[in-house]
Amino acid sequence: xxxxxxxxxxxxxxxxxxxxxxxxxxxxxxxxxxxxxxxxxxxxxxxxxxxxxxxxxxxxxxxxxxxxxxxxxxxxxxxxxxxxxxxxxxxxxxxxxxxxxxxxxxxxxxxxxxxxxxxxxxxxxxxxxxxxxxxxxxxxxxxxxxxxxxxxxxxxxxxxxxxxxxxxxxxxxxxxxxxxxxxxxxxxxxxxxxxxxxxxxxxxxxxxxxxxxxxxxxxxxxxxxxx
Length: 227
Hints:
Blueprint: H1 2-29, E1 35-44, E2 47-49, E3 52-55, E4 58-67, E5 70-79, E6 82-95, E7 98-109, E8 117-125, E9 130-136, E10 139-141, E11 144-146, E12 149-156, E13 164-172, E14 176-189, E15 192-206, E16 217-226
Antiparallel strand pairs: 1-4, 1-16, 2-3, 4-5, 5-6, 6-7, 7-8, 8-9, 9-12, 10-11, 12-13, 13-14, 14-15, 15-16
């Protein structure tokens, strides 16, 4: 808890700067096309991402802007050794009646917590399942330039009467490997988004030194509010 209190102030200040930036951007395009700007705050009991343990309980802040089919956003969270700040954007479209998107995401970390990553993201939602792919450009490690690909398959289990989603995720590449299974449940209570995730990772390996927690069963509880 002390860690959260210390680092959340710097996260909040950075997020407020980003919120101001997005608000001004939204006002600038308001006369030219429909636009919407939203903000979010959140809490995670543990921060796990794609089967990797990132941090103890974490507080996050974010801002998103939509301009027609285009979107752009930023997300900030405190991690054990500093702050993670992400920048992303993309375009939503439909191909043969299937909703799809293409975009980019940059992951950046203070205090050398992890390497920085830049991804190309693509995905499709076919109703009974969705597929998302993240393709990393090569990044510099002591062992040389290496990249990765990450794939997520999400299957809503509503067809068997369960209000949860199943996810299978897998990494391919020399620098980062492994796969994991996750179950996600979410609901909204009085405007607050409440989530629960349970997962298990298998054969994970990360060349930059993040904790692999290989063959671990993990879970987290999340709270979020958007405005």
